[in-house]
Structure formats: structure tokens, C-alpha cells
Amino acid sequence: MPTESRIPLLNADAMSTAASARVPAQVPAARVSSADRWLLRTLLRALGDPAIRVALWSGDLISTAATEPVGALRIKDRSTLWRLLYRPELEFGEAYTDGRLQVDGDLVSLLEAAFRVPLRPWVERLLVRARRPRANTLTASRDNIHRHYDLGNEFYRLWLDERMVYTCAYFPTPQVSLEAAQVAKMELVCRKVGLQPGQRVVEAGCGWGALALHMARQHGVTVRAFNISHEQIVYAREQARKEGLSDRVEFIEDDYRNVSGSHDAFVSVGMLEHVGLAHYRDLGRVIDRCLPTHGRGFIHTIGRNRPMPLNAWMEKHIFPGAYPPSLREIMTILEPYSFAVLDVENLRLHYAQTLRHWLARFDRAAEQVAAMFDERFVRAWRFYLSGSIAAFSTGSLQLFQVSFARPQHNDVGWTRAPLYQ
To answer: Which of 38, 181, 310, 381 is the most exposed place for a label (fewest CB within 10 A)?
Structure first.
């Protein structure tokens, strides 16, 4: 799942609220001073004067926006203000999750207002220099994935669709149900790689197995699906057994770097975000060695318009080691092996719609989620889903689908019409 440099996304795992040693641990919540007001105005201007209003602990209301604010933030005390000034990208989410920062109005609308205005260039440079993503070695990758995807299948079952698909759906119309849109997405993937009965497919990063099972069931192919999330693999194997597809779909608990053998198609949906730029050549080598001359490939990933590290909060708390690439960066996987790009599509508005469904379902299940974890967890995940909607709806994030093949491969559609029949 799934950011722009200001996206407030959290992980359910061990959310630290400790500020840097350079930030005072305890600051008396005294009267609001002229310095407090000046510092807050300075912060708002640095963030691009978003259309929001901020209420300080005294009740003072401050806004630097040129338009009517869409909502208000309430800062509980001076300590929270200082933390926001020191590390706004990280501390905004920490304060919201702790309850030290409250929102008056619709959370998604407020975040959209914040994302629509550009950061001051010097602020952006400062934030970029401050980020150091976690490594994605074989050992580190397993730990990074475990922290998010192994929270428990029962938790995800509360708010995902019936097939447990945790990636962007495809909505032929905005009114289509989430279940139907996820099936439409899986079918779109199959068409983009031109699946034919009897083919062999390898999937890198298979989630709970829905796509692998769909490919085998609907298109008569055999699939080897790799994933390093134990919880997901166990679930996927059980689904294959229930559907009588265990002889055609093999779910392998292993890293994508260990994929071997020749396959007619390579498919990766929602995994590239977890690979990390330093390992793009590794992924390219895997694709190169498993695709023969007639092979087709497909990558579906969250991305950006230009290179930018992942939001500090999201990288720390929800997707450790993750990085959403630009299209140019994706090409560093394919160009060394002369793969020819056949089709590129951006489905960012479809992801915003997918997330709206997830948020609505999550909110309906909030009491059950709180019973599984706690209220702080509920606030964190509501913030994560709301921030993601805002990022995709404002264009801070993209959703790229890239299909490719060997340069001499001519068995491709004359037009794109067959993809949407």
C-alpha cells in the first residue's frame, strides 16, 4: 500500500513518538506568545500556505492561506508545535496518532488541501537530505515485509474485498463495486501480458494469492508465485487447496531474487515499491533470465512524477525500505536488457477510488480493529488511508502499469482495444 513528500502514513507496528534529543522532552504549555504565532506562520508559509486553519492550545486561530480554509488543525501544546517545527514530515503523523493534533472537518479534504500546494524548494531539499531508507537485503526485506503484511489475515479481512486484494483496483465505471473492480484489474493484467492456456507464469510478490488463482482459473495457465510474507503464503495455499488449484498454482515462500526457470510471462503487482533503487539491477537480472524470446512482462507499481524519497513517516512506520519510482527509474530495470516497452498506463484515480472503498470499510470495522489492537492503531490506519486518498487524488502519487517484451517480439495487439473489450 501504499507517497508524496508530505503524506502522513503510519505502520501498525511500534509507532515511536519520541522526538529527537535536540527537541525538549517537556515544554510548559504556557500562554501563546508572539514567538509561537510567528513560528507557526513561518511553518505554514514553508509548507506552501495550505488552505487550512490552525488552532493553538489557547484557542488562537492562525492561517496564511489566500483562500477560505477547508478545515482546522488543533495543536494541543507548545511541545507539539516545537516538534512539528523541527520535523514536520514525521511529527505531524505522530501527533495525530497520539491525539496531540486533532482535525476539525473532513480529514481527506484537509490533506488534499495540504497536498495541492507545493513545498518551498528549500524545504523540499531539506526533507530529501534528511531521509535514509532502510536496506532491502535478503534478510532486511523479509523483516520489512513482515512488519506490515503479517499483522494478521483477520485484520485485513475486515476491510479488503472478498478475495483479499491489497492493490489498486480497476473501475470500468466509478459505480462498480470493489469486488467487481478487483476482478476487472486482475483481468486487465492478464490481457496486458496476453495469457494463453498452457503457458507458464511467474509472479513476484503475490499477496494473498488472488491474481495467481485468477490466472490459473480463468486462463488455464500454471503459476509459480513468490512471496516472503508467511501469513499471506499460508492463506494463499489454503485458497488454492479449496479451489482445487494446488496442482496449477505453486505458492513459494521465498524472495524474488531466487526466481529461476523459464516462463512465458513475468508479472509483478505491488512489489516494486519494496525492491528499492539499489536492487533494480537485481530485479532486471531475474526478469532477463526467466523470460525467453517470446516472453512478456508486466510491472504494476505506485510511482511518482519525478524522483523523490518516500515520506519519512511512511518509510518508518508503514513500508520500511519502500520507494515509489518515477517512470525513468523503472526503465533502469528494463533498459540494460533491451526490453521493449509495449504499454504504459496511469491508474492513479482508480487507486484513489480503491482507497475510498477501503477507508469506508475500515471505518465500519473500527470497533473490531480497536478490539484487536487499540484506539491509537485505529487513528493511525485511518490517517494512512485518508492520506493515501489525498495523495492519489491530487497527483502526488501515481499508479503505473508497464508491460514489456523482448525487442523482437511482434505478437502484440495492433491497438489497445482488446484490453478493454
So the answer is: 38
Q: Give CA–CA dist 227/208, Å, rounded.
A: 9
Angle at 143 between CA 139 and CA 145, to 5 degrees: 115
Instruction: Specify which of 19-28, 146-155, 370-379 reaches the highest per-range mean pLDDT.
Output: 370-379
The whole-angstrom separation of Cα 150 and Cα 53 is 38
In this prediction the pTM is: 0.88
Beta-strand runs (E) in 56-153: 61-62, 72-75, 101-104
Cβ atoms < 10 Å from Cβ of 285:
14
Looking at residue 292, what DSSP letter applies? Answer: -
* Cα 396 to the center of its chain, rounded Å: 12
DSSP-based three-state secondary structure for 26: coil
DSSP characters over 119-144:
PPHHHHHHHHHH--PPP--HHHHHHH
Which region holds residue 59: left if phi is over 0, alpha if psi is between -120 and 50, else beta? left
Q: pLDDT tens across 251-304, in order? A: 999 999 999 999 999 999 999 999 999 999 999 999 999 999 999 999 999 999
